[in-house]
Amino acid sequence: MQQEFKDKDFELEISWISKSETNGKHLPVPKSIIEAAEIKAKESLSSEIED
Question: Where are the domains of the chain?
Fold first, then answer.
């Protein structure tokens, strides 16, 4: 089943609650942080395939 989904795109929807970052409010994570997380996730998947 993993092979079936390995090349499909995915969408990340991330939010957070933080005293320091959001003043205790539930808000979406800034796009720059989401983009960085997406890059890291794709790199991780790529390295797993190579191993």
Answer: 15-49
